[in-house]
Design brief:
269 residues; SH3 type barrels; endopeptidase fold (from Nostoc punctiforme); 7-stranded antiparallel sheet; 6-stranded antiparallel sheet; 22 strands; 10% helix
């Protein structure tokens, strides 16, 4: 029997096998919806995320999903949640960018603060650090959506590389692209693998900002002006690269070993 749960820790790692000493496959941020059966493997359960990724997660990082409400997303690098709309106190919990809080908005008497009730408690946060999920996908034009995806990717510049990571504490190449799209209301496969469910192939010459470039085991995002952004283990984190041989950011392998270029199916040709 499948049960719906959500990640109730600021983040939790997903593993290839039920062992914290094995390879990490993903980082699940607070509020990520998962399903799994009741069978436990030494305290781990095999989960499927709301975006289709699967792996083993510590059951202590999960809670039953019993409440339904408005979904809010943390859009700043991190967001502190307080018991009162007052920043001089220690936060009750700090959630990373991309976390989803599902609850009920409550009236807040103090400007600049936002109130939300979830997990049976009322929390307050700076209103600029959190948005309704429904607001993330509303753009007047495709061009504005593309630019916002690129802007989101650029907001991770300098973030350290972390295999399987999806937060500002550490992020990998596919995590960067996935989060940049997810925070703008679009789906993308969470791996450096071309997947026809989400993207379609295009010629290199047709690349536009927010289009993707796939390599063997790596993915980058084109940001325009002959440049791309990616999270590189070799370079230690999120960097900008260039296809211009005269640029100091030119990297031979990432200019010659391209497997394919792709465009999200939500975009026009």
């Amino acid at each position: 029997m499948q049960n719906e749960y959500y990640v109730s820790k600021p983040s939790a790692f997903m593993y290839l096998v039920p062992d914290s000493k094995c390879e990490v496959t993903d980082e699940l941020l607070f509020g990520t919806s998962v399903t799994f059966d009741e069978e436990s493997y030494g305290g781990y359960v095999y989960c499927k995320t709301d975006y289709g990724y699967g792996g083993y997660v510590d059951v202590q990082a999960l809670s039953p999903k019993t409440e339904r409400g408005t979904k809010f997303v943390v859009t700043s690098p991190f967001c502190d949640f307080y018991s009162f709309p007052e920043y001089r106190f220690a936060p009750l919990v700090t959630l990373p960018r991309g976390s989803i809080v599902e609850g009920t908005e409550v009236e807040c008497p103090i400007d600049r603060f936002f109130g939300v009730e979830f997990e049976g408690k009322t929390y307050f946060a700076y209103e600029k650090n959190i948005k309704k999920l429904s607001e993330l996908s509303h753009f007047d034009t495709e061009e504005k959506k593309r630019l916002q995806i690129v802007k989101t990717a650029l907001s991770y510049l300098g973030t350290p590389y972390r295999w399987g990571g999806k937060s500002t504490s550490g992020i990998d190449c596919s995590g960067l692209c996935f989060m940049s799209y997810r925070l703008c209301g679009l789906a993308l496969y969470r791996d450096a693998v071309f997947d026809r469910r989400y993207v379609k192939k295009i010629p290199f010459e047709e690349l536009r900002p927010a289009d993707l470039i796939y390599y063997n085991g790596h993915i980058t995002m084109f940001i325009g002006m002959n440049e791309y952004i990616h999270s590189s283990a070799t370079l230690g984190g999120v960097k900008i690269g260039s296809f211009d041989e005269k640029s100091p950011d030119y990297y031979t392998r990432l200019s010659s070993d391209i497997v394919c270029c792709a465009r999200n199916i939500a975009f026009s040709d």
